[in-house]
Amino acid sequence: MSDDVRKQIYGKAMEWITGFLLHEISSPIGLVRLASRRELGDRWDESETKRHLESVTRVFEAIELLKNAAGVPRPQEFDLSALVDELLDEYKPEVREWISTIGARPFLIKSDPSLVRMVVVNGIRNAIEAQQGASAQPNPHDVTISWGDTDVDYWFAVVDHGGGINGPIETAFEIGNSTKKDHIGFGLAIARQAVETMIGSLSLEPAKDGGALYTARWRK
Fold first, then answer.
1. How is residue 136 annotated by DSSP?
2. Cα separation of 56 and 138, whole Å?
3. Confidence bin at 217 (pLDDT 50/70/90)
4. Which CATH code is given to the segment(s) 76-219?
5. What is the pLDDT of residues 183-212, one digit of tens each?
6. Hey, what long-range contacts does 88-95 have (CB within 8 A, 24 or more apart)?
7. Residue 87, Cα to own-chain centre: how many angstroms?
């Protein structure tokens, strides 16, 4: 069995399992939330019940993203550089000061914009959080985002100078595995599934001068 075929089978299984979970469990969770709000009344907003249910909700939102990441790609032409700018605009100006971008503008590609967004969002968010978590004050170009293409594929990369990678790299892609507080550990798994749905690969490795290098490639 070729690697591409294995990934396709895995993706179909992922789509089925996540769809089953969403269909069978999300409704009972909604009923629990409704009943809890009714029974707790004024105590709802400050309750532990609300806090735990919000955690469950975040998990189900991540499961839905994972399901979407395994869905059939719907290619269309869009500007990858504009997508990067849109996502960076969500950060404060003092964060933007130490982020650099390298790539053609505009950079039109034909791919599934929702799947590409999953890949780009995760790479940018992880790099910025790693840099913010480092002991030293961030400097210009501490996070560099780049993109381009070859004859056969597109690529997107983010490098940071944060604390680097803790533990075996492959475990970082496991569902539910996260070393960050308040993270449920779905981000890299979602990003990898999105890339593999587009017939590509996602890698995470130590950067040359410290930190981490996140690289995605997917077929044209």
1. S
2. 34
3. very high
4. 3.30.565.10
5. 667 899 999 999 999 999 999 999 887 889
6. 88/124, 88/145, 91/128, 95/128, 95/132
7. 12
Quick: pLDDT tens for 24-39: 888 888 899 999 999 9
Task: List the chain domain ranges.
Answer: 3-69, 76-219
pTM of the model: 0.87
Residue 210's nearest CA partner among 136, 119, 123 is: 136
- 137: exposed, middle or buried (C-beta count within 10 Å: 0-12, 13-18, 19+)? exposed
- Closest to 63 (Cα-Cα) out of 12, 29, 126, 20: 20
Closest among 85, 112, 118 to 100, alpha carbons compared: 85
CB 212 within 8 A of CB 206: yes
Alpha carbons 26 and 57: distance in angstroms, whole number: 9
Are 181 and 167 in contact by the 8 Å Cβ rule? The answer is no
Q: How far apart are CA 31 and CA 165, in angstroms?
A: 40
Tokens of 177: 């595995």
Token pair of 49, please? Answer: 């019940």
Query: What type of residue sits at position 106?
Result: P
Are residues 127 and 97 in contact, defined by beta-carbon separation less than 8 angstroms? no
Look at phi and psi of residue 204 and say left if phi exceeds 0, alpha if psi is from -120 to 50, else beta: beta
3-state DSSP helix/strand/coil % of the chain, to nearest 5: 50, 20, 30
Residue 103, pLDDT score: 98
Structure tokens at 199: 């017939």
